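Deliverable D5.2: sample structural annotation.
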Amino acid sequence: MCKTFLFVLMLSAVSLITAQNIKFIGKPELVLPHLVSTEKSEIKLTFSPDGTRMLWGTIGWENGIGGWDIWESVKENNQWGKPKPVSFNSSSNDFDPCFSFDGKGVYFFSNREGGFGGDDIYYVPFDNKTKTYGSPTNLGENINSKGDEWGPVISDDGNTLMFCTDGRGGLGKHDIFTSKFENGNWLPAVSIGEPINSPLDDFDPAFLSDGKTIVFASERAGNDAVDLYVSEWKENKYSTPVILNSVINSKDFWDFGCSVNPKERNVLYYNSHNPNNGVGKVDVYKIKYVIH
């Protein structure tokens, strides 16, 4: 009993060293309640590099085209505006948006007609002059498969695409893969391998501010739990993932949807459910961190 009480006190500290070279500061904060986080489900927030646009996936929002849609809020006069569905939504599922490193487009997944399998990854261009989106393009067979591809994220230099798939072989159900951009094309995706991938689901990676550390969601703990883990690239491989502590990972709910904001290099965004301060089924949270 004494040891358990001491452990709880340690977790409630203001600054929390969770794993390896990352330190989380404070407690998770609900993101924009009733604008982004609502009584429905909101997943996988992304920001334009200039900090003026914010996109996220929604489930069950009214006035959407499909059941899963992408919505957008634009910042004007330092205030986030009323969310609107993006023009490139379809009557199928459209989800997991991620702005490109240069702000000239958005990666996302969709199961619209004309793909290679279930959920495929697409890219839609964005014209910063007209503030409009173009027509989505499927990223092709080097990325997409007969299975599902989710959670695309792009490195700061735009040369590495990281995502998860269950259609390209691997160690488990959904594994994390990467592809390099060369000569105007994405090369065939390759598994990130062990120790990141496991026999169970591994997905929703995010590159942190140093470009070497990633946070991702994994089912590897078993018991239908999905938690966030951290791993660092060193000596030409990713280190053994370490689970984040219970201030971030919830006990009875999935924690996933990792993302970052280029204008807030020390903040991790993710999805969870907290009955004490949440407003919906799945909400967006953020927490500050430092890498040392």
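Annotation notes: The two ends are 34 Å apart (CA to CA). The helical segments are 2-11.
The annotation will be released with the project's public dataset once the embargo ends.
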